[in-house]
């Protein structure tokens, strides 16, 4: 009996010893309530602690030089509110061509300001049609952001922009000049400025930055086509390369007439002699210092002008582009500005949408509009965007309102501008040769992306 009890007692001691050894090796929790020795467990009915979100990097690719610094400021604010999301902004001067390389190499941004119909057709952009922010967007801007072929929205614009002729009101008043709507009036104004103010450049071209010359074609030459067919039909003609409507190489057409008008200004000494080497910065500087009387540009330039010379605000005038073909009307660009698209191959589409939602907050849109001096495209944003509100409204009334050109992805504003550079450099024997060269470049780019 005693022997049996001893065996039982020794067995209990052995079990307890083995149990203690297992606990000391961490294989089972001890009975101690200390935090250092007890693994955390969720109480019954309570969720486990959520893991912090993984760090995400969004690539933001832009070709809009005017807003690089402001976007960096907004990005910093966004990253503070969303510490798990890092946004890397990349600016490229010739963004329309650079993005081709990015798509081809796989270095694809998550968000971009570069948008082309060819890339829409290739499925490069995410469909944004069902996003909630569209209820806040001006209907006309939503229409301009609607893809002609699918009826969907693959991009969203934050602002409305205009482009036309910026002129020095003080000089015009001093010389008794009025805004020009015909080519004869326009050229006559420039000639008067040259004769009466020989130290002032009548019209300043920033030809080294070829996109500025590309805009002259887009607004003035293409303006002939756009007013003939209207916004939707013209957009369709450009997208589908309907040559019977575009008539790029037609004698007396928009391209041919534009070349002739530009050469008229050059031969008469009504543009700057360094038109091929002058930069966009030179153009702005010449205007705010009174060295030039007028230039062609969009509302995006206004913020820079006022930064360079805040006192020039009362002297800035704005008017439509004059008609370059007899029987047509002057035109004013009135279109979407600062567009954003999310690429379909983005690895972080939800985070990209979150960044756009941040940019589209009323307080951020207000800051953006007032910085860029451009009216907001969102109905719930009230911004004091600049001193040209009344003149902009007048320009819309006096000129046919046109939209941006839907160009092939291989034919950017820089590409078009380089052909204008060649015109000014004397490469073409006639305006007809220039028009033929323009059509050939356009057709080549369109065919390359529509095989």
What is the compact description of this entry?
The protein has 451 residues and is α/β, with parallel strands linked by helices. It has helices at residues 2-24, 68-81, 95-105, 117-121, 139-144, 169-175, 183-196, 210-229, 231-240, 243-246, 254-267, 280-288, 302-308, 349-359, 362-372, 389-398, 413-424, 431-448; strands at residues 56-62, 85-91, 111-112, 156-168, 201-203, 292-298, 316-319, 331-342, 400-402.
For the record, what CATH class of the largest domain applies? Alpha Beta
What is the CATH topology classification name of the largest domain?
Answer: D-Maltodextrin-Binding Protein, domain 2
Proportion of helical residues: 40-55%
Q: What would you say the CATH architecture of the largest domain is?
A: 3-Layer(aba) Sandwich
SSE blueprint:
Blueprint: H1 2-24, E1 56-62, H2 68-81, E2 85-91, H3 95-105, E3 111-112, H4 117-121, H5 139-144, E4 156-168, H6 169-175, H7 183-196, E5 201-203, H8 210-229, H9 231-240, H10 243-246, H11 254-267, H12 280-288, E6 292-298, H13 302-308, E7 316-319, E8 331-342, H14 349-359, H15 362-372, H16 389-398, E9 400-402, H17 413-424, H18 431-448
Parallel strand pairs: 1-2, 1-3, 5-6, 8-9
Antiparallel strand pairs: 3-8, 4-6, 4-7, 4-8
Helix pairs in contact: 8-9, 8-11, 8-17, 11-18, 12-13, 17-18
